[in-house]
Amino acid sequence: MSNALRLAKGTFGRVALLDMDRPLVRHAHPHCHVLLKVEGVDTQFSVGDRVVPLSDESAVLINAWEPHAYAHKEGQPATIILALYIEPRWLGAFRPNWKASGAPDFFVRSVGETSPDIRWLTRRLAETMVHEPGNTEEHERLIARLMIAVIERFAEWRDEPASLRLAASTIIDHRIRKAVGTMSADPGAVVDMDKLAVAVGLSRAHFFRLFESSLNVSPRVFLNVLRMERAVQAVAEGTASFASVSETLGFSVPAHFSRFFHDHAGSSPTAFRKVAGLQTVDFETPR
């Protein structure tokens, strides 16, 4: 069964070392998201409408809010994957334009050929997370070096000022902004998209079309992202029971929450909380 082997979290976002042997449902993240193979068999992800390879020589590159899924084939052996979920604000401390990593076109391609340096840093970071879970200073240094190498190789960040790209990506219809506000305030309370559409003054069909054209994800995927981010925080950083977290996020029974978490994070909540507790990471913003 797929599970998290190690987890690092801080102002940069989070980095998970995942041992994957089952598919993940179509989902998204509010982060600059990079997937790198550590060991095991070559595998593949579905990003948007493409299936792209993850191998020793290729990285999977996913923009913020871009729908994707782990396309694990039945009977395929497990693959250890380094999954980076990186906050745009943290990246902006390296280069001002890197705040654009929150824009929908920061990575123009969903797959790219890795360099020897990226492959070495991937392995080194994974080994350090496993063998030195408390060495937060080294984790910080390696995550920074790896993300710099990835962005400089795969993102065309020099082409356009970040401020313009970000501004263009944040123009959203006021009714969709209202729906987003309702979802964000209490994602566990939103159980009927038809009622939400009516509440913001739209028909169901118009609501779904306008929402997806504005944010590049469906309302349901967006809501699940909010629920998942709340779940990750509660599981990794809190002490609340999973039953309590499940109820807060609107799941009828804890088993449904556990399956939702595993299908989105690639790990059971129990394993995720266990590896999160191996270290306390408080990374400072890089200078």
From TrEMBL:
List the Pfam families: AraC_binding (PF02311), HTH_18 (PF12833)
- What Gene Ontology molecular function terms does this protein carry? DNA-binding transcription factor activity; sequence-specific DNA binding
User: In which domain of life is the source organism classified?
Assistant: Bacteria
Q: Which residues form the HTH araC/xylS-type domain?
A: 177-275
Keyword annotations: DNA-binding, Transcription, Transcription regulation
What PROSITE patterns does this protein map onto? HTH_ARAC_FAMILY_2
- Gene3D superfamilies of this UniProt entry? Homeodomain-like
Q: Which InterPro entries match?
A: AraC-bd, AraC_XylS_family_regulators, Homeodomain-like_sf, HTH-like, HTH_AraC
Question: Which SUPFAM superfamilies does this chain map to?
Answer: Homeodomain-like (SSF46689), Regulatory protein AraC (SSF51215)
Q: Which PANTHER family match?
A: HTH-TYPE TRANSCRIPTIONAL ACTIVATOR RHAS-RELATED (PTHR46796), TRANSCRIPTIONAL REGULATORY PROTEIN (PTHR46796:SF2)
Protein's UniProt name: AraC family transcriptional regulator
